[in-house]
Amino acid sequence: MKKKWLSLLLVGAMTAGMLAGCGSSSSSDSADSTAADGAEAATPTPDSSTDYDFYIFNGKGEIADGMQAAVDAYSAEKGVKIKLFTLGSGADSAPVLRTELNSEHMPTIFTIQDSQYLQEYLEGGFSMDLAEATNEDFKALADAVPEANILTRDGSTNYGIPYTVEGYGYIADTKMLASLFGEENVDAWIDAYKTASYEEFVAMVDACDDFIKNGSADPVVLSGKSFDFQAKDDLSGQLEGVFAVAGAEKWTYGDHLVNIAIDAVYPTSLDAANTTAEQLEAGHKLFERYAELADVLTAHGTTARGPELIESTTGSYDMQTQNFANHKAIFVKQGNWAYNGYVSANSEIGDTLTFLPIKLGATDDEILSGLTQEQINTSIPVFVPLYWAINAKCADEEKEKAEAFLAWLYQTDEGIDFVKNQMSMIPWNADPNEVSAGYSLGDSILSYMAEGKTITNAYAGAPAGWAQYTLGQYLMENYVNKAEWPDDAYSDIADYLISSWEEAAGL
């Protein structure tokens, strides 16, 4: 099923796009660039200037400053005039991008999130097959994108260059683990957790909850190894729950949480995008396992499950950040993109954070994607969050200049330095055994990559927006607002997950 805004891309763009230039070459002395300061202000729009060689529309607000610095350096070095536009972090760039793609002066480089969004840009005629590139360095860059990371609808044609790789899981502060189980036991505890069973994980959560409420609990057993709780101290004494939960945010229940089950059903996001109703229904038991996971997470938060958890004042993203950073929770389900928020809330926490896998209570016989229970429960999802696309409707000269810039950004020491150190991103083409991200969560991702302990982000193949705005909304309105769930909750959630996906996908 096509998104409602597809017509906006198609109306006028097919005729006007080829007649009007994307940019304009002129003799200005400097790059004409603009970036918004923040998402809280009124949604800004790009300036109307046409004095540039090509135009970049950047959809990742978190890298606005670093991207601007890279553009300025490249412009000075190459004598190329670049217009850069970036919305503030957290802002929805899609409406502005739609307008720009229908304007007289379209972006030459723009952002695509995943294959579901790609389809609409393809139907609008905007996304260039990267095999058609003319810049040799860029062609080599595009050819080097691993098959698992290409932006595609047919499984082979690549339409994007990855921004970076990101990862997520349960984040833990090793200082808190030391407070709970003894500093000398932290490394052993983490190693044991990584290989622990789902049943051991649930028992650990219950034991931690008991310790927080009562000050003592039975030992935690992970991978058959026993770990005793220490007496409460200044750090563990601040705990209010096992998990920091953004209960008012729909993505808490969809998106990355449901992905663990979807990974157990589909090998890739493309497989998920091309699912049949029969394949969806075959995953019913795995989707029940997802519901159980959501139950465990929300029943052990710093805020009790019920109306208060889904209130924006008590269950917001900001509250989740504050609760975890200020030692009120042991774990938080998040990705490395949240790192700066934790450090801003508590500057002492930055160097001691690490990722732990999200466990799924599925057996090998239940898993349909080809993964094993061990692979799922010992790995973290590592994926490409956004792609750079080349506008097929721009002039060849302009496209080649854009290609040269992207090749510089990801193939030269200078460009990669901007990606790593000013944008705080992990280059998608970096060797995890040879690089450092420069911060704890980034380095944790690299360690999982080096060990081959990664799984995919298959939920990106689900209907656009479904995981958050449909599934997430359903859980928030019907389950997370209640302290206790009925016996048939897991099955009912799985039923709704399947039926709503089928409806959204037109199956």
Q: In words, what does this structure look like?
A:
By secondary structure, the chain is of the alpha/beta class. It folds into two domains: 6-164 and 385-430, Periplasmic binding protein-like II (D-Maltodextrin-Binding Protein, domain 2, 3-Layer(aba) Sandwich), CATH 3.40.190; 168-175 and 241-383 and 442-505, D-Maltodextrin-Binding Protein, domain 2 (3-Layer(aba) Sandwich), CATH 3.40.190. Helices cover 42% and strands 11% of the residues. It has 21 helices and 13 strands. The protein has helices at 6-10, 13-19, 64-78, 94-101, 115-123, 136-143, 174-181, 186-195, 198-214, 255-265, 269-273, 277-282, 284-298, 317-325, 339-345, 373-377, 396-411, 413-422, 440-450, 466-480, 489-505, and strands at residues 54-58, 82-86, 109-112, 161-162, 166-173, 220-222, 225-227, 241-244, 329-335, 353-356, 380-383, 387-390, 454-455. Strands 5, 8, 9, 10, 11 and 13 form a six-stranded mixed sheet that branches. Strands 3-12-4 form a three-stranded antiparallel sheet. β1 (54-58), α3 (64-78) and β2 (82-86) form a beta-alpha-beta unit. α3 packs antiparallel against α18 (413-422) and α13 (284-298) crosses α21 (489-505). The longest helix is centred in the middle third of the chain and has 17 residues, at 198-214. The model is unreliable at 1-20 and 24-42 (pLDDT under 50).
What's the layout of helices and strands?
Blueprint: H1 6-10, H2 13-19, E1 54-58, H3 64-78, E2 82-86, H4 94-101, E3 109-112, H5 115-123, H6 136-143, E4 161-162, E5 166-173, H7 174-181, H8 186-195, H9 198-214, E6 220-222, E7 225-227, E8 241-244, H10 255-265, H11 269-273, H12 277-282, H13 284-298, H14 317-325, E9 329-335, H15 339-345, E10 353-356, H16 373-377, E11 380-383, E12 387-390, H17 396-411, H18 413-422, H19 440-450, E13 454-455, H20 466-480, H21 489-505
Parallel strand pairs: 1-2, 8-9, 11-13
Antiparallel strand pairs: 3-12, 4-12, 5-9, 5-10, 5-11, 6-7
Helix pairs in contact: 3-18, 6-17, 10-13, 13-21, 14-15, 17-18, 20-21
